[in-house]
Automatic annotation (TrEMBL):
UniProt organism field: Microvirga tunisiensis
Protein's name according to its UniProt entry: FAD assembly factor SdhE
UniProt keyword annotations, A-Z: Chaperone
Family matches, as InterPro entries: SDH (IPR005631), SDH_sf (IPR036714)
Domain of life: Bacteria
Gene Ontology biological-process entries: tricarboxylic acid cycle
Length: 98
């Protein structure tokens, strides 16, 4: 089970591939981060955003997770408006474990 809540019906091939790759990264935490963002945003992303999201998909899980959590400084060439949207999409107002 991938975890996706969005159907790929109605999406073009490129968006279907991006949605699939977002949910099948290897590290479950990154599946949830990238996959949930893709579920919510894939239909509205511009061609430029799609290209940038594909570029982010190619980043290793450990690096991307470190950038999102702030444990590793985000390289300037990846600190794009789309990356900032991805990072802002996942905010927590309470502890993960209660």
């Amino acid at each position: 089970m991938s975890g996706t809540t969005r159907s790929s019906a109605g999406l073009d091939i490129r968006r279907r591939q991006i949605l699939y790759r977002s949910w099948h990264r290897g590290m479950r935490e990154m599946d949830l981060i990238m996959g949930r963002f893709a579920d919510a945003q894939i239909g509205e992303l511009s061609e430029e955003d799609l290209a940038e999201f594909e570029r982010l998909i190619e980043v290793t899980d450990r690096d991307l997770l470190g950038w999102i959590t702030g444990e590793i400084e985000t390289p300037q060439n990846y600190d794009t408006p789309l990356f900032k949207r991805l990072k802002a999409f996942h905010t927590h107002t309470s502890p993960i474990h209660s």
